[in-house]
Amino acid sequence: MTYLALTLRSARHSLVTVMGQAFQRLLYPASNFYSLFLRCISSPRITFIAAILRIRSFRLGLWQSCSSILGRTISIPILNIFSQLRSAVHYIANHVYRRPRYTYMTPEMEEKYWKRATVGRRRLQRSDARYVGNMGKKLLKDREEELPPLVMSYTPALPPERRKKAKKLRGYYISAKDYCKWHRMVFPGDDHPTLAEASRLRKMHDAEELKVIHRISRMLPDDEVFPRPNTQPRPWSPKYQRKWRRWRKFHRDELERQ
């Protein structure tokens, strides 16, 4: 309000100054007209027609001088006054009366907007962590009438837990030699199947077991498992037996959880 009062006071002062300058400059040609009129009356040699012509020429000059004076003295200050008034109106519009940013032409358009906002809020509530589950649905039902149709906050919910299904292999091929190698690495002693027996025993295992048997058999080279003639065989180690038994236990527990 202080800014508005200062602006109006400055505009009034400018207007008074302009009007005073205009009247001063207009009085100067009026004094010339009065002196000319006195000369016309006092001189008997000037006829009535000459006086009329001089008066007409004076009127034209007076009008031109007045228009130039007013143009020079009033045009620029008047523009300054209007600019100050414009700034005052702008100040009032922005600080005294604030119009809302978003307006609508009709109440029907505003009602349409609120309906769309309600639909968007309900879509987000389906994946909101606060309203997922039985407790969330009860809370949403209690607060649905209190909340405005706006998205005040959003907390994304975690995806539902899904059990990982074990991928069952349709089939896995392993050679009889690899099966014999695995048997010698896992089980101690000299009682090991032959190639013919290994081709029959490998059919008793499923695809996952055959895959693990093949993986264990590749942990050692063939020369260390099948020694050459006249060479000392590699001593047996329980390392690979523990690997096999650990996998069997894990596989059995996984089947029980399913």
- Beta-strand percent range: under 5%
Number of strands: 0
Helix coverage percent: 55-70%
Shape: elongated
Mean pLDDT: 71
Instruction: Return residue spans where pLDDT drops below 50 for at least 5 consecutive residues.
Output: 44-53
Distance separating the two termini: 78 Å
Rg result = 54 Å
Order of helices and strands: HHHHHHHHH
Given the helix and strand composition, which structural class is it?
mainly alpha
Number of helices: 9
Major sheet details: none
How is the topology of this model organized?
Elements (H helix, E strand, L loop, with lengths): L1 H41 L5 H49 L10 H19 L8 H10 L32 H11 L8 H7 L5 H11 L4 H4 L13 H19 L1
Q: How would you characterize this protein structure?
A:
There is one protein chain. The chain has helices at residues 2-42, 48-96, 107-125, 134-143, 176-186, 195-201, 207-217, 222-225, 239-257. The chain is mostly helical and 258 residues long. The longest helix is centred in the N-terminal third of the chain and has 49 residues, at 48-96.
